[in-house]
Amino acid sequence: MTATGPDRRPRRMRTHAPMRRLVAQTRPHRASLVLPVFVRAGLEAPRDIDSLPGVRQHTLDSLAGEVRAAAEAGIGAVMLFAIPESRDATGTEACDPDGILNRAIAVAVAAAGGELVVMADLCLDEFTDHGHCGVLDQHGAVDNDATLDVYGRMAVSQANAGAHVLGLSGMMDGQVAAVRMALDDAGHTDTSLLAYSAKYASAFYGPFRDAVESSLDGDRLTYQMDPANSREGLLEAELDQIEGADMVMVKPALPYLDVLAAVAAESRVPVAAYHVSGEYAQIEAAAERGWLDRRAAHLEVLTAITRAGADIVVTYAALDLAAWLEAER
Ligand code: PBG
Hints:
Shape: globular
Number of domains: 1
Number of strands: 10
CATH class: Alpha Beta
Strand content: 15-25%
Distance between the termini: 36 Å
CATH architecture: Alpha-Beta Barrel
Radius of gyration: 20 Å
Bound molecules: ligand PBG
Order of helices and strands: HEEEHEHEHEHEHHEHEHHEH
CATH superfamily: Aldolase class I
Structural class: alpha/beta
Number of helices: 11
């Protein structure tokens, strides 16, 4: 249709399904998926989470079943979060070998039977009574360096419980180096670190805070990143790699695909993205009303996050996605 040359018709590559399949540039795979799993102390039976349809708080028993389901679905990993029965100012239970998260790790590793990776959240917000990701100083501000000590001890207890990967989600400066050194000193040289490097202070964490019954009254603006900043995301990812991160993450995913693409272009380690609770809940709520095709929406989102450069995608839809990807084959 140009005046000078032959017709250029990109639609030729879209003529039928086998052709579209042949030329598809992005091929999400179930092995790249990570399923977040919540475990709550003191539950008698799994409990639904209203703002996260299809996601539940598990007992230690039902956790084992969920991990088996994840292994059978062929996904890459589970990421464990836990809700203790009691919280205190310093998050004591996080470092207790009998604490709910450490017990959950051991249960998940046993249930996984060597078939998938077990990741554990390394952060204090589920364990502190004030709900912040670190301990507080005498003025009530989050004390970065005092928190690093606790993270180091928490990391060793998670590694003792058998976790393969620790997800450092607290956004304290120097956390990767501090945790790496604590692990190495304890002989846990093979425990890997997934750094939540560019983690933004986001409104899209709302349903997650319901899921973990968050005690937070306030915000995390002094430690999580300002949504206005992308260069800073690159700096965070770079520092984490220098400090010894084995993987880096951008979170949330869709509102930050630009940051994800930029981090992926520069990173020397695998890059993960977290399609967070509020992003998931938007699709679920609209699908429930018949306003979106749930399956198509989740698959498109996964494709988009992968296309932007994620090697690993954390998503509450991991089990369904794995089944859909398999069915499409
Ligand atoms: C905090 C943490 C949060 C999420 C993962 N780890 C919430 C927060 O920072 O308040 C959110 C994940 C989601 O929304 O799915 N350790």
